[in-house]
Write a structure and sequence with these properties.
Methylamine Dehydrogenase, Chain H, 5-stranded antiparallel sheet, mainly beta, 31 strands, 4-stranded antiparallel sheet, 0% helix
């Protein structure tokens, strides 16, 4: 671990006010009532789509860096800040990743786009310098810190969310450190490493870094709401590893019931876990306590990102190759709606009370 208060710089981005249409980014005007937003990143359009989750209408599209992959907002139970909150987008730089018959576009990024959700405007860009290919990104519960994986540098950085200043960094020494999740008390970070087939555990209390083998292609990762387990999808092995947070060890391995499990997401009550099996074009639903399959749901082509609604009734699945987002009725385990946001949707986040409807 190293800390350098001078590391990391900040580029001020131009704000896009609601009243002005720029580059086709006109948005609907605000009204008095606060509303939630679903944020969907369109990788090949290099933009963030802001969606009204009640109507599924896209209310704004805002520019990001090239190939945005993941987006962070405050956790559900952390509440929204008085200013409506911000979203932070990792500009990974790679896009057209899974497009059939087309080679992926490889232009490594090194920045974070900051969006003011109440104003529906891009307000800042954090420049990470040599820390290239930022991907997994999480905002702390108090909204003050960002944790970001930087694949090109094989490390995780801790940023000041207000300024983009690098506060700490930890080297994973693993290949393709892709996604990151914190424990509920935020004392530990868990990082999935695709090429190394492992999970790195970072203890923020003493900066200890340990990597645990899981399975080929460790990529998707989530912490159970009770904070006891971390589930990891091993996309090359077609299974999931369950890690004990108390012991930082693998305690179970589960068949993914599909090909290329790429993301996992718990329902807010912790009873179920949804896994997007990308090459099977389906989502597998598991009983989290029994670690057993409840059923599978056919969705669109190449499902990747999964986002739960705060009440747990709906799940949103980004079907990258169909350029659509599928809405799942969680209780009924069925598709109820499909809508478009742009080209190659992937990372998503939910912002509570973040915008005017």
């Amino acid at each position: 671990m190293s800390a350098d208060p001078r590391a990391g710089t900040r580029r001020r981005a131009r704000s896009f006010p609601l009243q002005v249409a720029m580059l086709g980014l006109a948005v609907t005007g605000p009204a008095p009532a606060a509303a939630d937003l679903l944020i969907v990143l369109n990788k090949s359009d290099h933009e963030a789509a802001l969606v009204d989750p009640a109507t599924l209408a896209v209310v704004a599209k805002l520019p990001t860096g090239r190939g945005p992959h993941e987006v962070a907002t405050l956790p559900f139970d952390a509440g929204a800040r008085g200013d409506g909150g911000h979203a932070y987008v990792s500009n990974y730089g790679f896009y057209a990743i899974f497009t059939e018959g087309e080679r992926p576009r490889m232009e490594a990024g090194n920045s974070i786009t900051v969006i003011d959700l109440a104003r529906r405007a891009v307000v800042d860009t954090f420049d990470l310098g040599a820390r290239s290919q930022p991907h997994g990104i999480v905002l702390s519960r108090d909204g003050r810190l960002l944790w970001v994986t930087c694949e090109g540098a094989r490390l995780v950085v801790e940023l000041d969310a207000a300024t983009g200043r690098v506060l700490r960094e930890w080297h994973t020494d693993q290949d393709v450190s892709h996604m990151v999740v914190p424990t509920r008390d935020e004392t530990k970070l868990y990082v999935s490493n695709i090429r190394s087939g492992s999970v790195t555990v970072i203890d923020r209390r003493d900066d200890r870094v340990v990597s645990i083998p899981t399975g080929a292609g460790a990529e998707g990762i989530d912490v159970s709401p009770d904070g006891r387990e971390v589930w990891v999808t091993n996309r090359g092995a077609n299974n999931l590893s369950v890690l004990s947070v108390a012991g930082d060890s693998v305690v179970a391995t589960i068949d993914s019931h599909g090909e290329m499990p790429i993301r996992v997401k718990f329902t807010p009550d912790g009873r179920q876990a949804l896994v997007s099996n990308a090459r099977s074009n389906a989502v597998a639903v598991f009983d989290a306590k029994a670690r057993s399959l409840l059923g599978t749901i056919a969705v669109g082509a190449m499902p990747v990102g999964i986002q739960m609604a705060p009440d747990g009734r709906r799940a949103f699945v980004a079907n990258t190759n169909d350029h659509k987002v599928t809405v799942i009725d969680v209780a009924g385990r069925k598709v109820v709606k499909t809508f478009g946001t742009g080209n190659e949707p992937d990372g998503m986040a939910w912002a509570r009370g973040a915008a005017a409807r």
